[in-house]
Amino acid sequence: xxxxxxxxxxxxxxxxxxxxxxxxxxxxxxxxxxxxxxxxxxxxxxxxxxxxxxxxxxxxxxxxxxxxxxxxxxxxxxxxxxxxxxxxxxxxxxxxxxxxxxxxxxxxxxxxxxxxxxxxxxxxxxxxxxxxxxxxxxxxxxxxxxxxxxxxxxxxxxxxxxxxxxxxxxxxxxxxxxxxxxxxxxxxxxxxxxxxxxxxxxxxxxxxxxxxxxxxxxxxxxxxxxxxxxxxxxxxxxxxxxxxxxxxxxxxxxxxxxxxxxxxxxxxxxxxxxxxxxxxxxxxxxxxxxxxxxxxxxxxxxxxxxxxxxxxxxxxxxxxxxxxxxxxx
Length: 329
Fold this sequence. Notes:
alpha/beta; 10 strands; globular
């Protein structure tokens, strides 16, 4: 499709059993928003998992930044195949535009055309369990005050004890990520009640559309950039959002290597930390102390890695991450 914007609408079925009525939260309609770039096979899998859901979504909005039409053709084929089965009532909106740069801009574009009452943001390399949408909507039913509901990633194993020790020591205050321990305990928490959190992961978060209408993902974050999901949640703070993780809404994150940084992990984390600190968490002496303590932790990690590898590449990755974080603010 080149650089031109195109939109294709098609009615599809979600493969629910014949005669099964969808069990929506108070009759809410759901728009699924998926930004994608150069991951046609991964995109096809997430669409397949949407077909397998026990409740139907209203529409799927895909914003594709790829150079080729392979993703569009695969998805269109899936939708055509489902349409031939007869009972189809979910709309596909497929936008392909190479001039869109990054997940933030793609999500903003999708929010302009999404029509559902709940917007579900998914990464293009996830695979949903069949009752994911049903469990998500069930959490809204159970808590009518919920502003947003996220699910749980089931294939994130607890990291090595050394990383957990480092994290517990250096990630303090706003920089402590409350989501990861929930993911690490996915099996134990399967039947737990929804857990209130302060932030979501961008690959599996949903919101009531009316609660976030008018907000935008920060387009200063170009390409693939950690932190855009946390930044979006932080923008909601004045509205006093009630954000929940529903452990029963489960998916696998396949973490496609396409489009990801391949150097030291500190680059991604330091970039996000610097960006978020400058935009949201630079409010007082406590925030400053937590931030500089975290930078000390990063410096310790890359110093050890550089000595072990006999290379300055980890230090270069750290410095590049800090620079990118400063540029993005």
